[in-house]
## 1
Amino acid sequence: MTRATAGVASAVTVRDLGCTYAGATRPALDGLTCELPAGGLAVVMGATGAGKSTLARCLTRLVPCFLPADLRGEIRLLGQPIDGARVGALAGTIGMVFQDFEAQLFSTDVTQEIVFGLEHTGVAPDQIPERVTRALAAVGLAGFEGRDPTTLSGGEKQRLAIAGLLALRPPIMVLDEPTTDLDPTGRAEVFDVLGRLRAEGLSLVLIEHDTAAAAAADLLVLLRDGRIAASGAPARLLADVDACLAAGVRPPDVCRVFAMLGLVEPPLDVTAAAERLRARGLVPRVSDEPVSRPAAGSAIIEMRGLGHRYPDGRRALADVSLSIGRGEFIALVGPNGSGKTTLAKHLNGLLAPTEGRVTLEGRDVAGLPLETLAQRVGYVFQDPDHQLFAATVAEEVAFGPQNVGLPAAEVEARVAEALAAVELRERDADPFLLDKGARQRLAVAAILALRPDVLVLDEPTTGLDFREQERMLDLLDRLHAAGRTVIIITHTPWVIAEHARRVVLLKGGRIRYDGPLRPFFADEGLAAEAAFRPPEVTRLGRLLGCTPLSVAELVAWIGRGA
Amino acid sequence: MALTLYVAAPTPLHRLHPVTKLGLLAAFVVAAFMVDRPLLLVPLAAVIAVLMVLARALPNVRRLRVMFLLVFFFTLVVWTFFYQSVLVPTYGGFLYGLSTAIRLDTFLATGILFLSTTRVEEVAYALGRLGLPYTMGFTLTLAFRLVPVFFDAALSVVQAQRCRGLEFGRGGVVARLRRFVPVIVPVLIGALRRADRMAMALELRGFNSGRPRTTYLRARAGAADVLAGTLAVATVATYVVLWAAGIGTLAAHP
């Protein structure tokens, strides 16, 4: 597809942009000035509330058309000012994709999904078939015509949403955390599509939490409290570890290693970084710590020959045998559809095995009453909004203890204890008005109030910014240190490497690996099967002959040797 | 979780104009209402059964077989015992129950046949062609698209609250109803949040672009539509005649 960007130097020009939402006291954006050259990729990063989404919505006129706000300054797209334009009128100029892919699909058929925008922007019917074919091909969904979108994977749904916009041929595309809700496979699919669009000359504005996506950008913008904290070439900005952290962004591991070793200008590529370190003689002289299976207490949960078939006959789990010791910290990993969540739901009886059995301290889980299970094995769902319903934070936490029939005084004590554990002080706040990180912690508090011995968390860090992720992981580390058994389902390699003690990899409903972290990350084939890459620092270490699990570990090994 | 019934198959029934299919649906429903004698309802049911095979929609019937059986036997038993008396079975009641059971199952089958052969977008298009405003047809499409999404959300919410010790099957009616609050609130709030994002996504896709809307889905009526339309009209006409002549009503069975 040829794009009409030729002859225009700048795709997006923002001058002194300010935005204060109606009813807000503090501006969401203040004095923003930046420019994206035509055909370029700008990555916007920053903590929750820094103004990233507001910027994206200003560019597409969702602010102020949908979300009333007082706007100042000027925005030009392809040199044309956009003030006064309707959102729909800009559809052929700028497209926008966001995190929630379900909300961006309106049809019960893939073809119709693409046709939708074309009809609404008045494209002549005889041109529609070609546009549909091209848009689907551009996102790698050729051959999906006529499929029901509900049967697609997350990555496919998000690509379909992108295709629906691409069909309108906008020269500029804004993507607001398009891969946050996707598994590593889906992420890779979407980034692959973005790479292709860039090669075709589209100008892209990408909002992301992961610095890996920023390395290839022409322009990186770090937002902090509605202002530009820094902007420029990614290599320069990411090298400033402290500035990244101050903006709530997790700096690349390589940059942290270089900063700790007192080196400047870190390359953003792992191979180049390994070369630089080796050239300077900065190599770890200590081989990996001996692999020792962490000392686990007596088994608290045992699975023997566990199998699960869905009512439609599909096999989700086969012959899973797993012994979970008291006080372990386990990461349950695997691509989507590998059976992670299905396995986890057997731990507290949400699902019943169709073969084999699950025992909790020797007693069959299937025979235990709900109150008992709820107080022994806590399960925190991925989306906190799937369980929050009460009018206040305290009532939300009291719900569980009340359900299992605890006396009022005990309920009150549990509420205080759980809220203290997750560091939530706003007892009377409305849960729905808390930000995502606080809602996630509240969901954990609601389970902690039942004082379970085992805590299962499904993707507890998804959708959180780096600071909130750290806060959640600190909480899990504290609970683990206090003797609780923690099991997390996650796709984030560094979360596994820095916090878990044991990895269970599922593939096709079977256990593919069960053991300590280092051998898991050292085996590249295994990581590929799990559909993710080991953490950056681990990959750097592998090039230098060791398998570090954290930046601190690699730096200590190099330091000890030097 | 697939809740849609549409069967993607290139059968002659699928290829009919959506308005024709809507017309056939209406014709069979009206015809089934005209007569009460089981024998006269059987041909209607038989025609639907044949069409069902032609449309390759039998798997949908199998999926919903419990519903068919429940409707059939419940109706039959209730009318047999309560038609002319209370708790005393009567022959008249049995006959009436039988015809009602066949009629209801025919309705059910006709509806399934319609949804198996017609995409929701086509239904919206047909309604538009019959003069209904576009937004109403579109809302219908959106509802179909969202039902499975909300169904999944509701399942998650139920499980999440069970993890907090919420037991649904205990206590009196009021207590049980109150226990749905922790399920309904998150589902509703989630739906509202999503609706908000959806409204934004719609506009980003050019809804309200200010340009006149075009229609891609332009079904053309062909010979098959003429044939199907004739069948629909003939069916309705025959059954109206049966009704007018009094042939369709059940003879009194004191």
## 2
Amino acid sequence: MIEFKQVSKTFKIGPREVHAVKDVTLTVEQGDIFGIIGFSGAGKSTLLRLVNLLERPTSGRIEIGGTDVTSLSAKELRRQRQNIGMIFQNFNLFNSRTVAGNIAYPLKLAGTPKTEISRRVTELLQFVGLADKAANYPDQLSGGQKQRVGIARALASNPDILICDEATSALDPDTTSDILRLLKKVNREFGITILLITHEMEVIQSICTKVAVMEDGEVIETGGVFDVFTDPQHGTTERFIRSVQQDLPSPGILKEWRDAGGGKLYRLLFKGPIANEPVLSRVTAKHGVTFNIVYGSVRELQERLFGNLIVSFAGDPVATAAAIDEIATLTDIEEVIEIER
Amino acid sequence: MNVDWTTFWPRIVEATGETLIMVIATLIFGSILGVVMGLLLFVTRQNNILENKIVFNLLNLIINIVRPVPFIIFLVAISQLTRLVVGTTIGTAAAIFPMTIIASFTIARVVENNLVSIDPGVIEAAQAMGASPLRIIFTVLIPEALGPLVLGLTFVSVTLIDFSAVAGTVGGGGLGHVAMTYGYQRFDGSVMIVTVLILIVLVQVAQWIGNTLSRKIMRR
């Protein structure tokens, strides 16, 4: 378990002070895949580096498994770091060492016996699917393969925590999903807690269980991925969500709809089991109203269904109002009012 | 009066040997001192693993004071110190001392430049794995910079062949001395040509060794 308690980090650049992280309080539970998302400069990279004290906090406490890491001696800190694997956007492999040499490095640091090192390296290469690349050098590998080596190296010392600094940002979409699958496997098979930072909502959506949104050094929203995706509280969060799922037709189509004299549009959200029920057709039939789905989607998030439909109703105004009221008792419904985005 | 080549060859061989000794000895001592200083310069930089403003600024200042001085001036300027340390200012050993000092400062800069070109992310990765600063120096910095470092040392050793000839003109031994006394002062063009040819061959060989070694290390 990683706990940030009122953590702040201020950099002094000449006479200027940059508040990279401001009063962040956050808890990452054991076994979580916790994603921190934010635009560049939001402070997420600094926040991540506070976990293994590559950056020291200006104020506040960081506790890992109940131990305040800021109070550790240099030697204790080095030991603690062996318990926290880290992977990087640019992989940061040692070019002077082979793939096997890279993976062996943290084991040598830990003073592991030679025979145990070679056994463990073989095992890790197998796990990341690079058994045939042991003798290759990093510059002979593709980006995806390099990140696999990075992951194997980070796992070598059997850490409880893996922190990922934009681990897929330098990779193409196919390779990204390969690496994400591998991270999920790391989490499931070894129970390793993963804390990652990214600017891609895709990453959060596909593997994270929990998410925190950062802006200007602050955590502005945090929660389970399903809850945050289905009910974002903050404008920035909505922008990130819209980057992976469009919840409204484009303004052009909406305008066309209005110009053609189309009636009021309503957004219906179905979260979880309710998405399986014929709510819309049952209620409208009962009130003698018809409906038209203008736009929408039903998707899977965190193994739960999430429906987002844009609907118009036709029929007697009183009956329509009654139908809408009844739907409101069953699931979320709101009128679509365009705002300038 | 021209030299009698039938009896002069042994003198040339001896002088070549002296030049080689000067260059190799300087390279060894200079590399040890230079690598230590270069590493110190790098690790004590701002935001580096052993950041230390005092050590960095002091080293930086000393290097910047010594390096711009022309070698022939430096040689004469520190002759009293040379006498104190070596016991004489004449001969091969007396040339090695000032050459080592100059070489170590030059090598310090070469080492520093090569270390700066290492991706800081790689150092960060080693820190994140729990490596101590000393460990990072020996298992990350040196191996990662070794290829270009060998090329840099090759460059320095070519300069040292040049310096050894300069030292030879003011009392050091070697090919420079021979070229000066026989070729220049006695106007014997044949000695001049032979010594220059030997110096060219030495430079070629040094460059070839350096290129081969660095290619091996960098696997290219």
